[in-house]
Design brief:
The protein has 169 residues and is α+β, with helices and mostly antiparallel strands. It is built from 5 helices and 6 strands. A hairpin with a 2-residue loop joins strand 4 and strand 5.
Amino acid sequence: MTTEQTPDHAAEAPADDLPLEDVIETLRAELEQVRAQSLVDRADLENQRRRMERDVQNACRFANKQLLGDLLPVFDSLDAALVAAGGSGPLHDGVELTLRELRRVTGNQGLVQIAPAAGDAFNPELHQAMSVVEAAGVEAGAVAQLFQKGYRLNEQLLRPAMVAVASSD
C-alpha cells in the first residue's frame, strides 16, 4: 500500500535531492517571512483597535449633539424671559434658577456658551458678524454688541455668536 501525497503536501515537503543546508536556509527564510507578516498583522490589528477606540470616544462625546442643538432656542427664550421679567421678583428669580440649572446640566454634557462682551476681540471661528456699527470706546474690529449667544459642544461649534463689530471710522 503506497501513500500518495496531496499536491499541498508535496509543495511543503523538502525536495530529497536538495542538500540539507539549502533546505534549512529555505525554511529559515520562510520562517522570517511568516514572522514579518505576523508583525505587520499585529500592527494592523493594534491600529484598528486604536481607531475603533477613538471612534467610540468621539461617538460618546457627540452623541447628544442633536438634542443639545435643539435646546439652543430654549436658552434664547429663557434669556429673553429674564430681560422681560425685569431686575428682580419671583418671575425673574424662577427663570434665572431654571436657566442656571439647564446650563449646569448641559455643561456637564460639554455644552459651552459663547457670549463675547463689548470690546472683546472678534474671532471669526466663534463669532458671526451681522453688522458693522460705530461704537464709542470700542476698538475697531472688536465686538461692539452681542445679538445672540453662540454655543460649542466639546470644542465643536454648534452655533456662532451673532455680533456687531465696531467700525474703524
